[in-house]
Write a structure and sequence with these properties.
The protein has 577 residues and is of the alpha/beta class. Helix content is 36%, strand content 14%. Helix 6 packs across helix 22 and helix 19 crosses helix 22. The longest helix has 16 residues.
Length: 577
């Protein structure tokens, strides 16, 4: 029996006896089939308030703020009734202490198990983006913690004026979004188009993952040092760089890393190297010598608790380490190239520690910093006050009180919609004077300044020079939501209602009485028999698609582009309060 099957309690998985490998392990073969099953699960599976679903970095491993919150909920007797479900890419990444635990289930993206538990969970906690086909059910709560303070450019930028669609959808679907500081609050409001759109609860609480660093017990720290084989008579230095390039074209210079590892090995210290998980595939032939490389399932924030000096580059890990008050060195050997290629939101004068660009200088300054007690400089303290105002070891408690109980007393709330709202519904636009007139009206509303202004367009307008020229000139206060070209998520019934006689034939194996899908679907227990008028399936489909893109957002005013197609008009019907 697999790890997953051991972990799934019968009370939660009613069709467990019929669910074998095809449920837990087999990936659903086509995007359309994935969407159909997702829609069927959402309709068929009643929400269970005692199930919490977690995912960090698309299932990379148990990590970050979702992991910190999981540990707190898992260990607190008040929450013993909860069942915890983790999305992970590989069973190899599951910590030994949770293997076979009846209170924890592990699932893999793209499987029926992932879809089922994502639909079942009453609470969802993530730090990045859930699958594109995800639509939160109205009775589900979803907390997005995000995964770090922004040093690198992200979201809506000059190079990407339409922003990061997947991140925007996920944040807008969330019922709760937390941030660690005012700086990051503004980044999320502006660069992820939350301002004037996000309808949930947003709060500056601090990252729960920081509690893993600040609250580690002496016994846990000793155990971690022993596991890593650290010499207790020496200081510990962590080198934690990030990858280069952009997602889809990530890279890292293995030869540069080999030279740096050889230089760091000269330090009279325990030297640890921990790569960003995206880097791993690019550094397979590096000889680490006596440098310590932690196991893949080691929590970065737990690791920081035993570190005396951090060396990093453009990774947001240095913000986390600021809370310790220990020294940081910024090793920026390729600063000009990186800044031009990726873009940075902070200048060098914003950084808390000394900046070096050569391996020799790195070793020299690291030696000095670990040779005497460290006194934070004024620049270090300013950065700590700016980026870590809530890092007091209590972020998990505040977050759980706010998210699980709805208690926001003593929590700094952020108002994402402080005034009247207006959305300009552009759809695909065109290249005529109608598009120019549409943007003229939008600009007028922006300049008037009494409403938060949002623009909704199809992502395909990126190839429309007329539209893009006007979008690039928009005031930064305008939120932009770009819907990717995406076939709507629909059940088989909805697909039939939409396409009618033109619907593609259902594959024969899907029609077989004993097919995998029918065996799973037939096992679901509905809350009540579903009866629908002829038009109801279409209405539900458009409502679901609206919520996939904009969450529960509704607006005071709607301005439609004159040339909208029927699809965009039907979607717009859900925009007004």
């Amino acid at each position: 029996m697999s790890v997953q099957e051991k972990a799934a309690p019968k009370s939660l998985l009613k069709h467990r006896k019929m669910a074998g490998r095809e449920f837990w392990k087999d990936k659903i073969r086509t995007p359309e089939e994935l969407k159909t099953r997702q829609a069927e699960y959402v309709i068929s599976v009643p929400t269970n308030s005692n199930v919490v679903f977690y995912e960090s970095m698309s299932g990379a491993r148990m990590m970050d703020s979702p992991y910190a919150l999981f540990l707190h909920l898992y260990r607190d007797p008040k929450f013993h009734i909860l069942h915890h479900v983790w999305s992970v890419r590989s069973e190899d990444l599951i910590p030994e202490e949770f293997r076979g635990d009846p209170r924890v289930t592990f699932v893999t993206r793209g499987t029926d198990a992932h879809l089922y538990f994502l639909a079942l969970a009453g609470s969802i906690i993530g730090n990045s983006v859930l699958p594109e086909h995800f639509v939160r059910k109205p009775d589900q709560k979803y907390l997005n913690t995000w995964h770090g303070i922004a040093y690198k450019s992200l979201g809506r930028t000059d190079a990407s004026p339409l922003g990061a669609a997947g991140s925007v959808y996920n944040l807008l679907q969330a019922t709760h979004v937390l941030t660690p500081c005012p700086y990051m609050t503004e980044v999320e409001l502006a660069r992820f188009s939350l301002r004037g759109v996000f309808s949930g609860s947003m709060a500056e609480i601090g990252y729960p993952r920081q509690d893993l660093t600040l609250n580690m017990s002496e016994s846990s720290a000793l155990k971690l040092r022993e596991t890593l084989g650290l010499d207790p008579t020496k200081k510990t230095v962590l080198y934690a760089p990030t990858w280069r390039g952009n997602k889809g074209s990530a890279r890292f210079d293995g030869e540069q890393l080999q030279r740096d590892i050889e230089a760091l090995a000269k330090l009279d210290a325990n030297v640890i190297f921990q790569a960003h998980h995206i880097m791993l595939r690019h550094i397979k032939n590096v000889d680490y010598g006596n440098i310590v490389v932690p196991p893949a399932n080691t929590s970065a924030n737990e690791l920081l608790a035993v570190v005396d000096l951090l060396i990093s580059d453009y990774s947001s890990i240095f913000f986390d380490f600021l809370a310790t008050g220990n020294p940081i060195v910024h090793y920026l050997y390729d600063y000009d190239d990186y800044a031009e290629d990726r873009g940075l939101l902070l200048d060098q004068q914003d950084l808390p520690g000394p900046i070096v660009s050569t391996a020799d200088d790195l070793v020299s300054i690291a030696t000095n910093l670990i040779s005497a007690p460290y006194q934070p400089t004024p620049q270090y303290q300013q950065a700590r006050d700016r980026f870590c105002p809530h890092d007091d070891g209590q972020a998990c408690l505040r977050t759980i009180r706010w998210f699980m109980y709805g208690d926001d007393s003593g929590i700094k709330q952020v108002e994402a919609r402080p005034r009247q709202t207006i959305i300009f519904w552009g759809g695909r636009l065109d290249k005529t004077r109608k598009t120019e007139a549409f943007f003229d009206t939008l600009d007028t509303a922006t300049k008037f300044g009494d409403k938060d202004v949002t623009l909704l367009v199809a992502h395909s307008v990126k190839s429309n020079a007329v539209a893009m020229n006007r979008i690039k000139q928009l005031d930064p206060s305008v939120s932009i939501v770009a819907r990717n070209d995406f076939e709507m998520i629909m059940t088989a019934q909805e697909r039939q209602a939409r396409h009618g006689a033109d619907i593609s034939p259902v594959p024969e194996e899907r029609m077989e009485k004993n097919s995998v899908w029918n065996r799973l679907k037939d096992a679901f227990v509905r809350k009540a028999p579903v009866t629908a008028s002829e038009d109801e399936p279409l209405e539900m489909m458009y409502q679901r698609e609206y919520r996939r893109v904009l969450g529960d957002a509704q607006f005071d005013e709607l301005v439609e582009f004159e040339g909208l197609s029927g699809f965009w008009r039907k979607l717009a019907q859900h925009a007004l309060k």
